[in-house]
């Protein structure tokens, strides 16, 4: 199999925003699946000030070739000025699951290698 599974992490400010992003990414075939996790308490530095927020963690399953289009769309949909956008390749994926992710994101414009 020439394509891998990419996992993308981000956080949304609330369930409604997370839901909208998740449904859009899946409907547009940019993601095969988006897991919306339980709310978490985030502590971070923003513009020189320590901040806290309750956020909804999101795990997005996609492919490396769909990543650029997914990232661009996420930045359009996300209300944060600088949303978290971290991606890593899954190093062990069942062939059936990988095939499903690839099929679910088929037709997305491929980014140049």
Tell me briefly what this model is.
This protein has 113 residues and is α+β, with helices and mostly antiparallel strands.
* CATH fold category name: Alpha-Beta Plaits
CATH architecture: 2-Layer Sandwich
What sort of overall outline do the alpha carbons produce when their principal axes are compared? elongated
| Tally of separate domains | 1
β-sheet strand percentage:
25-35%
Walk me through the structure.
The protein is α+β, with helices and mostly antiparallel strands and 113 residues long. It has one domain: Alpha-Beta Plaits (2-Layer Sandwich). The chain is 30% helix and 32% strand. The chain has 3 helices and 5 strands, in the order βαβββαβα. Strands 1, 2, 3, 4 and 5 form a 5-stranded antiparallel beta sheet that branches. The protein starts with 5 loop residues before the first strand and ends in a 9-residue tail after the last helix.
Question: What characteristics describe this protein?
Answer:
3 helices, 113 residues, single chain, Alpha-Beta Plaits, 5 strands
What topology does this entry show?
Blueprint (H helix, E strand, L loop, with lengths): L5 E7 L2 H13 L5 E4 L3 E7 L2 E14 L4 H11 L8 E4 L5 H10 L9
Antiparallel strand pairs: 1-4, 1-5, 2-4, 3-4
